[in-house]
Amino acid sequence: MTIVVAGERKEYSDGLTVDELIEAEKVETPQYVTVTINDTFLSNAERASRILQEGDVVEFLYFMGGGADFS
Amino acid sequence: MAFTNEQLERYSRHIILKQIGSKGQKKLLNAKVLIIGAGGLGAPAALYLAAAGVGTIGIADADVVDLSNLQRQVIHSTADIGRPKVESARDSMLAINPEITVQTYYEYITSENIREIIRDYDFILDGTDNFPAKFLINDACVLEGKPFSHAGIIRFEGQLMTYVPGQGPCYRCVFKEPPPKDAVPTCREAGVIGAVAGVIGCLQAMEAVKYITGAGELLTGRLLTYDALKMQFRTMSRRKAGSERRRQMIYMQLKEYEKLLAHAVKCLPEEACGLVGGRKDEEGNSYIEKVFPLENTDHSEEHFSLDPRGQLAAVKEMRENGWKPLGNWHSHPASPSRPSEEDKRLAYDSSALYLILSLMERSAPVLNAFHIEKDRVAKEEIRYIQG
Question: How large is the ipTM?
């Protein structure tokens, strides 16, 4: 099936879960990434069970945070 | 090319100088020098370059002659008030030396036209009176591999340096980035004594003549300052910068920087944050096309978390424009512009850019860009571009 991942069209076999996609795409800091499928935010719990469909548009949004923490 | 009798007479004081001679004079006659700005600095420089027989002199200025110019811009006279400065300048130059060619540019020099214009010339003189123009000239000359003379004057002081590709730092190597708007007064606001323009403008012409003829040593790797009141010239040396061309640069639209700064100031005392989007070229240079200010969901003075919804919208907009997310930015309202321990810990991607704006000193905000890999922080140089 063809899906769009971070703006690029990619071919993956059917039945791929989001967790599997994250691993295949070598996503940095997977524990900190937020996934959207077709503009809907996916909860972390769903990542193992959600199966990707033909034409799904997936974005990886990295948790971006930080701070000043100077004493 | 043989000299006519008239040329031998006209340039005799050059030709008998060992360091110039007829060879040097030929080089001058074949040379092309561009003067950007027909004002305080450009005026004396243009007169001396015309007198020296520089074969082609380009002069660019979008202004007309004004009464207040005449206190120092000796290439214009009272009768020229209201005329385009470049036309008045051309007339004066040709009156001194009718055999040279003067190319006038009665227009603003901007990022749209500068690279094409400077390509035709061997040496450029910065005779401008504002920082964005000075950085624009610097960046264009570095990109095009053109030597140029930088100068600036105010009140009773002036400064000067010469950039020759591969032979020392450029203006930006020394002065990093334009000062914040209104931080440094203009000559109109602060005043300038006419002769300072003469001193420094003539030194610029001198550097151009030396470059063309190969005489003496150029003011490369050094910054000259002149204090007319103390009657002091000082030279400060700067270490040679790494080759400008080969370093990977980050280019950022100046107006995007201003947008980032304005948003961060508005968010005070909280930290502001967002994404930057743009593209990278084959050499690894990054071009930040747009700054996306996003909500800091922590709403804290010391921490930030980017709002994921805002991120998604920003990323989609980037895709529509053919851009990629290049990294993120955040402000440090009361601490320096470098990654904190927390910033380093939460740096998610070693190839991403992390921009940090310090508002510690309100009158002097500092924006730096970093690559972060675990504990290793590499500061990268940002070049602001206009237009």
Answer: 0.81
